[in-house]
Amino acid sequence: MDRDHIEVQQAAFDEYHDDPGDRPVMRARFEHNGSPRYLLYTIKRFGLDHDHGFHLDVELVSDELESGMETIRDRLHEGDTDLVDTDYLSVARERADGAAIVAVHPYGRTVGGLVAHEDGDIDGLADLSGKRIGVTRRLDKNWILTRAACREFHDFDPDETATLVEADSRADLTRLIREGEVDAGFQFWPLVPELTRTGPFEEVLSVSTLVQRLSGAEEKVPIATFLTGESYLDAHPDAVSGFAAAAREATDRLRADDDLWTDIGDHLMQTDDPVVVRAVRDGWRDMAVRDWDSERIDAMRRLFDHLKTVAGADALGIEEIPDGTLRPAATEL
């Protein structure tokens, strides 16, 4: 995706960036190829932020700039942004390391899919040994979950038996897969349909199935969360609660309105292939978690404990989830 397309997407948001008035402003900085932009666009398009008492200011950025948690931590600490998203394992790692950040609302089961050449010999987890496997980074949640599942269900650790290839970005990972520099890659779920639609590739494993198997939960367990800084939360608790309410309403619209997805395909996707748009739509609806409560947060903690037992604290990069990491905005603010 080139810079011109980022600017086209930004223009779609800017059309709805009206005057905030006296509402508190929540500055959101999100990757140009990340799926949260569909939710944020819906909030802006229908004015759900103003309906819930805050003003959402969205800026799209390159994933090459935003791929590291250090960047997220610095931006929240230095006041450059008020809202970002990442997986709750990363939030917990950074909070344990002293970052004053907190997850305030779930996003969803934002894991990826293992994409391989359709003529290859990788059909699932059991086939990873001896292969070159692409990921965005070693602490990628897809890789952590895969390691845990391989150890739990197949008695091996692919970190020891496969060759891990770290890409600089999601775009670079797509290149590695297309050019055959890896035997398979764990690509983020919204980018899987375009790979499988436009090339001789297939998704041989959806990591979301591993989430549910490892967690033992019947309801969808969110992996990604929206997070903010403690200072913003303390200063604007009503804005954070308002965002949670707007996100729930936007999720309902995205689940019910097919025409909205046509509009999203026209403005926010690089392809207007209706098959790809529908695949992303259906994937988003399956991925999204509308809300959370104490029971679902308990399931997230159980998943962490299980991953730690199976894969070890070193793979997770943390011994435990610190108190205060997961804070439901609707019920505890």
TrEMBL record:
Protein name: NitT/TauT family transport system substrate-binding protein
InterPro entries hit by this protein: SsuA/THI5
CC terms in the record's Gene Ontology section: periplasmic space
Family: Belongs to the bacterial solute-binding protein SsuA/TauA family.
The entry's keywords: Signal
Gene source species: Haloplanus vescus
Subcellular location, record wording: Periplasm
Sequence ranges assigned to domain SsuA/THI5-like in this UniProt record: 69-256
